Amino acid sequence: MVTYLDHAATTPMLPAAIDAMTAELGRVGNPSSLHAVGRRARRVVEESREIIANAFGARPSEVVFTGGGTEADNLAVKGLYWARRAAAPQRTRVLASAIEHHAILDAVHWLAEHEGARVDWIPVDSQGRVHPETLAEMIQGDDVALVTVMWANNEVGTVQPVAELAAVARAHDVPFHTDAVQAAGQLEVAFAAAGADALTISGHKLGGPLGVGALLLAKGLDPVPVLHGGGQEREVRSGTLDTPAIVGFAAAVQIAVGHRVTEARRLAGLRDELIAKVLAAVPDAVLNGAPDDRLPGNAHFSFPGCEGDALLMLLDARGIECSTGSACSAGVAQPSHVLLAMGADIPRARGSLRFSLGHTSTEADVDALAAAIGPAVHRARRAGLS
Amino acid sequence: MTLRVLAAMSGGVDSAVAAARAAAAGHDVTGVHMALSRNPQTYRTGARGCCTLEDARDARRAADVIGIPFYVWDMAERFDRDVVQDFVAEYAAGRTPNPCLRCNEKIKFTALLDRARALGFDAVCTGHYARLSDGVLRRAVDPGKDQSYVLAVCTREQLAHAMFPLGDTPKADVRREAAARGLRVADKPDSHDICFIADGDTRGFLTDRLGAAPGKIVDVGGDVLGAHEGAYGYTVGQRKGLRIGRPAPDGKPRYVLDISPVTGTVTVGPRAALDVDEIVGEHPVWLAAAPGASIDCQVQLRAHGEVYDCTVAATRADGDGDGDGDGGDGGGDGGGAVRIRLRTPAQGVAKGQTAVLYDGDTVLGSATIAATGRAALV
């Protein structure tokens, strides 16, 4: 039996999303076509757009479909930087939190290397939180093009004070983007109420299909496109719309957001149980991230004296699937930039694992991990931090 | 008996088939690709190494086809220290190292094996061509691919946890088997170069690390014939690339006879002066029992090199006092030495290379060549 504790990487599609998507796969129609089958497809896309807009407190016209979270992040970061710089040439500074996902991190690095951006990384505290006062200090001057801070961190699960951060950016007339890929479906994510100018969501993290996402983009904001072509999606994101993926995405959003309050409560309960049982089995394990302001499905630990990779392999051999949560280069794990930004030393950063729960998680999953983690840690410690 | 086996997978055809065979034999196999370079070059073309992204991908793809778990382990630091830096230091000391052999000794059957055993594995499986059963290491059946030479530095203890499933199979059959098993690496070319010198330019690699160290090229009488930019660019027995303006008086080619790292002097002379029939080997590793007095056997002095009949005797007490020459715990280095007397002279025997002793196909042991000479002179 497999114990899947990696829902933050991707979570199984919801049956309703599979039904909606597979039904649509058998139908013809380019939503941009003017004839009947095109109109039919367009109706499906627009209804999906309305469902998603409604679920996240945005207007339908503010939903820009993309090929996933990474594309939406790239469009926001690069597109808004280019647009802002074009309008005001002195605005070449980008403020991004030090714990962003690589889709933001690397896009920002790219702007620095190729587009003359100056980057200031917004520090976080030991729990991985960005403080609005810190942003207020860093945003001084009239040279900032963009602020981007994720809604909730994908590794340690810390939830950011997004509305407060957005208010700081607004006060300085700087566009504020937030990557809400992990938050959407788990936390209350309300676009307009949060005061964000752009917000990223992804289909497969909330029970929808892979390869589809959206950038919620405030009216009047016109990022320079990354993809040029047929001018779909407000001329911001060209490319034929993927009607089956979009309808599957909308079906998943409807369920995930509709059941969010009860599901989040259930997951948080399971998660707290998981944390208690792991700490009981491995008393010197350290829970990373914020104890309270964290994603309901996230538990992230450092296991002193262990290498995360070794632990992952040992758990995998016992059918327990989790993640070190950090990025790979040629498959070689690097110490997590998130943990390093939180002040962890390299051994602690390398000796960490993320367990993430989702809609198919049960108490049996928690019990399976509780039974396996002690022996695995014991074994991994023998191999040490080589 | 089902063993927990860690299959080292380079991304090449041999290690892929070795892993597949271990799995087919019923063992519980996990594939591991060792990342040996901190900065793997993206899809490097030309040279075949063990550390490119393409190799890691090929290894993972093979593991997926075989149906075994696969991980990448970062061994870059250990590899740099124990193989690359050792390689440079050996050349700097006027010796000629064999990095593949060092990698087997220090990385595959030390760093990797130690970690594997700590994590609960029973054995490390590789795609080496050599036969191993009941602790006896023998040449592969395919003489063209035999790799027993580069494994002979491993101790009995290390080999007790090693598995070489390809030793009984010719390479051509391994390629056919790879294709039959659906492994796409079936046609991948063999690797020949030193994996960490991508362009094959060893002298350039050494110059980058050791800097220019100009010195003289002299003949056996001490007359200066020319100059060089670094003695480390020369190997005993080398004939090409000496760049001596004047021909030898007899018009015959000259060869590197000796390299003195202290003075930076490279001595050249006629081919006949390369003849060697006495070899002193240090750090002996015995897979068979160490010779009491002396034994008649065969010796191979470099990878894929010629085999010579010889007589071998231990020349010093081997340090650990139990007389088996193994350092006390199963074949280790006891700090002893051996004297190897060849029946017929060998030429171009470089210090730093390994002398591997055979009885027919069976590896008896190995030692690092520390000194060479003619019987009357040693």
Topology:
The complex is a heterodimer of chains A (386) and B (378).
Chain A lengths: L2 E2 L10 H11 L10 H20 L7 E4 L2 H19 L5 E5 L4 H13 L3 E5 L9 H7 L5 E5 L13 H10 L4 E4 L11 H4 L3 E5 L10 E5 L14 H5 L6 H16 L1 H22 L4 E2 L10 E5 L5 H10 L2 E2 L6 E2 L2 E2 L3 H5 L4 H5 L1 E5 L6 H21 L3
Parallel strand pairs in A: 1-11, 3-4, 3-5, 5-6, 6-7
Antiparallel strand pairs in A: 2-8, 7-8, 9-10, 10-14, 12-13
Chain B lengths: L3 E5 L4 H12 L3 E8 L17 H14 L3 E5 L1 H17 L6 H20 L4 E3 L4 E4 L2 E4 L8 H4 L4 H4 L2 E2 L7 H10 L21 H9 L4 E5 L4 E5 L26 E6 L4 E5 L6 E11 L7 E7 L6 E8 L22 E10 L7 E6 L2 E12 L5
Parallel strand pairs in B: 1-2, 1-4, 2-3, 4-7, 8-11
Antiparallel strand pairs in B: 5-6, 8-9, 10-11, 12-15, 12-17, 13-14, 13-16, 14-15, 16-17
Helix pairs in contact in B: 1-2, 1-7, 3-4
Summarize, please.
The complex is a heterodimer of chains A (386) and B (378). Chain A has 386 residues and is of the alpha/beta class. Chain A has 14 helices and 14 strands.
Overall geometry of chain A comes to globular
The coarse silhouette of chain B is globular
For the biggest β-sheet of chain B, the strand order reads 12-15-14-13-16-17
- Number of helical segments with 4 or more residues of chain B: 8
CATH topology of the largest domain in chain A: Aspartate Aminotransferase, domain 2
CATH class of the largest domain in chain B: Alpha Beta
Q: Would you identify the CATH architecture of the largest domain in chain A?
A: 3-Layer(aba) Sandwich
- Strand residues, percent of chain A: 5-15%
- Work out the oligomeric state of the chains in this entry: heterodimer
N-C termini distance of chain A: 31 Å
Q: Helical region count of chain A?
A: 14
Number of domains of chain B: 3
